[in-house]
Specification:
The protein contains 1 helix and 12 strands, in the order αββββββββββββ. The chain has 190 residues and is an alpha+beta fold. The chain has 2 domains: 39 residues; 124 residues, Immunoglobulins (Immunoglobulin-like).
């Protein structure tokens, strides 16, 4: 009885090993066949580079007659070294749909003091944010002014000099068409 169990167990082990070897060999041959087919040149098939997509759209760009801008300040006063949030709204007033870039470098918030441009949101580039707008559509964004002065190049707000106490005027315009502008908003830095 003991000998029979050993023989049956031995035969079972040999069958399992044979099955495993068969599976490994079959998988290796199948993989080799697939790789071989992939690397063979197929007569009559040529590959050419994919052309660059061209930008086409039946939708026109928004013009001055299509848009208006609104500007509000969260507060009319700000402490020296403080900040104020401005809400900038693009309103579509035209009759047909059109495209407009709603990024901070396209809707430009400018802070002035007299004839001096103190700060502008366009000093640092931003990715475009194309908006498809139809009559009555509004797009609102918040732009924060940290009561500082921008320079001629893009710099971190923390490295910009703070403005002195005084009265400043904020206005938002569309890049490329200054006729699209908001009414002015006055902010006092105390």
């Amino acid at each position: 009885m003991y000998l029979r169990r050993r023989i049956v167990a031995g035969l079972a082990a040999v069958l399992v090993i044979a099955l495993a070897v068969f599976c490994v060999v079959s998988l290796a041959k199948g993989a080799a066949a697939i790789v071989g087919r992939m690397t063979q040149e197929q007569p009559g098939i040529t590959r050419s580079p994919v052309p660059d997509p061209s930008e086409t759209s039946a939708v026109k760009d928004c013009g001055a007659d299509d848009l208006s801008l609104q500007l509000t300040a969260a507060s009319q006063t700000v402490a020296v070294g403080g900040s104020v949030d401005f809400t900038v709204t693009i309103v579509h007033e035209g009759s047909g749909s059109c495209l407009v870039d709603g990024s901070d470098s396209s809707r430009i918030l400018t802070i002035t003091s007299g004839n001096d441009t103190v700060w502008t949101s366009a000093s640092c580039p931003s990715d475009s944010r194309m908006l498809l707008m139809a009559k009555g559509d509004k797009d609102t964004a918040t732009i924060t002014w940290n009561a500082d002065r921008t320079g001629s190049s893009c710099e971190e707000d923390s490295s910009l000099p703070r403005v002195d106490a005084g009265t400043y005027v904020a206005k938002v315009t569309m890049k490329g068409d200054a006729s699209v502008s908001s009414p002015s908003v006055t902010v006092t830095v105390k």
